[in-house]
């Protein structure tokens, strides 16, 4: 077997209306300059999170296939609205398509939780369309009844006084991962993309400038209960009711195959959100991979070699591995 070049990480800048945004690019010296690129948007409810939080298994998938992985920053609500998110998604998409000096690279777009919303608005509003979409317990739309039912996640509603400071602060990107254990380190992988058995993150300090107030995430709970998300993203969130319209057959035909990884016991985002969107898109455009009994972002710390055994003895990481196999089929067929 030929030796593989080790994974590396570089931080690069792309611009939105002359506003610099950063992204982390994971690649290696032996990657081709004209292959597929994976563009990833981090979780955080559109109100927090950081690009440095990337699932290890996803980095493995990309490295083993020699796909550069671009983990992009984006500006947060409420300092920007849906149009601002689309601007950031467009700039990140154009950056990924032209990575390495190429202008026509195929791009798979994925996201964790609300980061996946940026993937769907790319398809709604931009051309050319991505090669595929990958939802990781994602939010494809805020036009679902879950976001209009005054859902209460904490025991009591979040008081406006607890979040008002975040509503008036300057425009910012996510700078603090939702979970310090979700920070990805390149030396956690061996050059061949397998898990490094000698790696430990114990004692490591997070990268600099990742000190955002963790309580900013309360905005998600607050706006979910207030049914306020759609008022902020209404201009770009087209929902999926159109998929049943006979006059929208062309749009449905052009929609890329979308693969959903979903825990059946997700409390932060009802599994019905992705299940209903998958049903609307139909079996030719949607593949739903369910992990029984698992909560939101259940796979966030996992490597492909890891197991997540439920009470029935089933390995819930099989949902991730199934999604990867389906993604390979999609790529091979395009």
From TrEMBL:
Stored Pfam families: Abhydrolase_3
Domain Alpha/beta hydrolase fold-3: 39-129
InterPro entries in the cross-refs: AB_hydrolase_3, AB_hydrolase_fold, GDXG_lipolytic_enzyme
Keywords in alphabetical order: Hydrolase
Keyword ATP-binding: no
GO MF term set: hydrolase activity
SUPFAM superfamilies according to UniProt: alpha/beta-Hydrolases
Stated name of the protein: Alpha/Beta hydrolase protein
Organism this protein belongs to: Cercophora scortea
């Amino acid at each position: 077997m030929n030796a593989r070049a080790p994974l590396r990480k570089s931080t690069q800048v792309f611009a939105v209306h002359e506003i610099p945004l950063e992204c982390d690019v994971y690649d290696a010296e032996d990657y081709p300059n004209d292959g597929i690129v994976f563009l990833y948007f981090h979780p955080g409810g559109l109100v927090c999170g950081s690009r440095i939080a990337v699932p290890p298994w996803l980095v493995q998938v990309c490295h083993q296939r020699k796909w550069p992985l671009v983990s992009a920053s984006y500006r947060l609500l409420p300092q920007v609205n849906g149009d601002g998110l689309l601007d950031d998604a467009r700039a990140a998409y154009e950056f990924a398509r032209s990575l390495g000096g190429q202008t026509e690279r195929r791009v798979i777009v994925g996201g964790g939780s609300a980061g996946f919303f940026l993937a769907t608005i790319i398809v709604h509003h931009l051309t050319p369309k991505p090669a595929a979409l990958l939802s990781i317990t994602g939010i494809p739309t805020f036009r679902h009844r879950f976001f209009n039912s005054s859902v209460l996640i904490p025991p009591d509603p979040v008081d406006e006084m607890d979040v008002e400071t975040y509503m008036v602060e300057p425009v910012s990107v996510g700078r603090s991962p939702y979970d310090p254990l979700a920070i990805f380190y390149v030396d956690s992988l061996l050059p061949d993309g397998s898990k490094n058995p000698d790696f430990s993150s114990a004692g490591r300090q997070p990268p600099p400038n990742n000190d955002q107030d963790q309580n900013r995430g309360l905005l998600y709970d607050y706006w979910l209960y207030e049914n306020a998300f759609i008022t902020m993203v209404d201009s770009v969130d087209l929902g999926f009711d159109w998929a049943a319209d006979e006059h929208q057959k062309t749009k449905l035909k052009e929609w890329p195959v979308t693969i959903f990884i979903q825990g059946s016991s997700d409390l932060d985002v009802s599994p019905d959100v992705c299940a209903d969107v998958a049903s609307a898109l139909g079996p030719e455009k949607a593949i739903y991979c369910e992990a029984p009994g698992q909560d939101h972002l259940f796979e966030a710390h996992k490597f492909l070699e890891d197991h997540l055994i439920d009470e029935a003895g089933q390995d819930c990481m099989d949902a991730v591995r199934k999604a990867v196999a389906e993604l390979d089929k999609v790529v091979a067929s395009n």
